[in-house]
Amino acid sequence: MTLLPWDYFWTAFSKKNFPDLFDPVWIASLILLVVLIVAYTIRTRQLHRHRLYLDMWEWLLWTGIITFFLLVMGAVFVFDFAVEMTILVVGVGVLVWVRFWRYPALFEAYEVQLARQRYLARAKASKPEATIRTKTTKRRRRR
Known about the structure:
- There is one protein chain.
- The chain has a domain at 11-101.
- The protein contains three helices and no strands.
- By secondary structure, it is mainly alpha-helical.
- Helix content is 68%, strand content 0%.
């Protein structure tokens, strides 16, 4: 370190200025981008009937695409280190917020709704008469 720590924020994020951070950041960003797309594809196929879970995964997908793609672009176009750190902190912060603060309360309400639907379906199916139509009496034709 030849500069003061806060002076590094305004230097270009390149392999020359940050030899131990540059390659791991852009490689990890590409790997996480691919992992996120694969996880999104798998989870949306598994949860296709649950709209709330699909919404959460869409939030995670687009936030991850924006964050990790911008980190790679920042490495390619040599942004300042402060810009790279801002992208990383804000992007990961939004990912954490979506996964751990925004949706868990909604998931709890959704689980209660599903439990109520299962209970009502089970209660209806437990009475076989409720599922069988009764025959109507035939009326005579009037002349």
